[in-house]
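fold-stage: in
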Amino acid sequence: MIALHTGPVKIYEVTEVTDELVEAFARLIPQLSSSNPPPDREFLGRIVGSDASILLAAEDEGVVVGSLTLVVFPIPTGIRAWIEDVVVDSSARGKGVGGALNKHALTVAAELGATTVDLTSRPSREAANRLYQELGFERRETNVYRYNL
């Protein structure tokens, strides 16, 4: 694990899949999505081992209370970044964990040369949407399309 922040909550880049991490995702992912199962050890290993993704975790008193995946990729118009699957445990919401995760993701994206960072958030996630706007994200007038395979 590479520590990026110390303080009340420690934010770090996950570089190794541990039993504690697998257990944390088993607890966190159902709070994010009811339609997708939590990733198992092998799948978490694929995320951690990917050159395109950076898995950040937030830890409070030795317990993982949040995570965020930052995807950074080159395209013909430059280096872009995308934030996905931001989740903060219900017991830690309102304590700055989501803000800390996002701020560190923005710092890492800038260090890697990204010129923009995008994310999406359901309108029903009012607190998350307020946070993103407070952090400086601007709502774009765009169509987001999804093709299910």
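fold-stage: in (second)
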Amino acid sequence: MENMSTPLLESPEDSPVVEETSPSPSRLWIVILIAAIIVGLIVTAIFFLSKADISTTSRIRDIFIIFMAFESIIIGVALVVLVVQVSTLINLLQNEVKPILKSTKETVDTLKGTTEFLSSNLVEPVIKLNGYLAGMKQLFDLFKFKK
């Protein structure tokens, strides 16, 4: 009888390709460049604010405070949207995905029971019968007269 088991992946060409998740060097340089520009702008702003008079500095400070308040409002709205999306996802998981998984588990359990029943009541007797018939054939072949 031939060996029916063969490996699924016979050569390195058949192996699945795993992509690297590390950033490429050009992307890394872009991030470093953007960070350097931001740091440079902050240092330049601090330098010019230290040289400017108090009224200019206070105006820039007020504009910056207004900008930060506006940014806080935007972040608050984004958090509210995030909470709504998370609650929608939880609702979806509880009311739609969970019943589907329960139904699938029931189906798999039913299929498992059916295969066990067929195995014990149909397949096993047929295999035993084939074994007995093969033994009888060998017995008849043993007593068969050759010409």
